[in-house]
Records
---
Amino acid sequence: MLWSAFILGLLGSLHCVGMCGPIAFMLPVDRSHSVRKITQISIYHLGRLLAYGSIGLFFGLVGKGLYIFGIQQQLSIVIGILMIVAILIPIHVFNKYNFYKPLFTFISKIKSGLGKALKKKTPDALFTIGFLNGFLPCGLVYMGVFASLAMGNAAYGSLYMILFGVGTIPLMTSAIYLGKFLNSSVKKRIQQAIPVFVVFIGLLFILRGLGLGIPYLSPAPAVEMATSAIQCH
């Protein structure tokens, strides 16, 4: 399932450019020195990856706790359904119920921190910009959070989100260098591919939770595997 994180980030990075593009364009990098510019952009990305990894670690720990209580497979099914539902329900329905209101205070603090960091040109400021950038609300990040929760493991949850972040690096870096460089037809095709792939990931999580005994794809529940091993002896 980890491979899906990179592809989700890669496909969704167009959305990331749309949401975080203004931050990328305003990065205080030295545009007159190519090597220094690459180093500064890398520091920015490291900040983002640390933020994503921290988010994945937290939700992976939560998923591990649920796994200990023996509901990890049910959780995988629920998360798969939520991912599909989130794609099928129009965005204006979510906006109508204002689900983001509890996060407004947190988001305002992040934006305030970003504003201060963008005025500086030091390496630590670039790292801070990337780190805070990783905590900005984003639908695709929420999809990654669902997936890291379903991993049922802190390390895998963190790795899932890091790989998601790695997938966003190529397009985000290109945006810093080239600005708005994709034509409308390419953007439209990528945007159309994102919900299809998210639904596909959701179906994979549902299949994984069903425990059909398919190696790697839908492994049997741990209890059943242990019982089979005992019977073999």
---
Amino acid sequence: MKNFFGRMGDSLRRFMMGRYGMDDLNRFLFYTWVLLIVLELIIPVRGVKSLLSTLGLLVVIFELFRMLSRNIAKRYQENLKFLDMTAGLRKTLRINRRKFDDRKTYRYFRCPGCGQEVRVPKGKGHIRITCPKCGKSFEKNV
């Protein structure tokens, strides 16, 4: 049985040689497809269910087309365009994730002078904070 799965894996690797494979846009399409399936299960309206089912089918067909494509340069350019379009959102999500991870050890304040966000350690009491961007000082309880 172990040998069977090893041969299957080798066959799949040979099949995918020279094909584009997965990238960020394909991952986004996959998560969109999963979301459409979940919505289809939750929403009881028949017309909406068929619309979601059709959209899900189109998304998965496009994802498979991109994954199995041999035109690697074209798929790479599509992925770069997607990354460029979502750069702001991804940056905001990354910053918010960092703030959430730091919530037990740090507090974040905005400088009243320039609006720069300053991170200071928690538990220090009443402190004077100097903005690294504009040099303005302000006091806060941490």
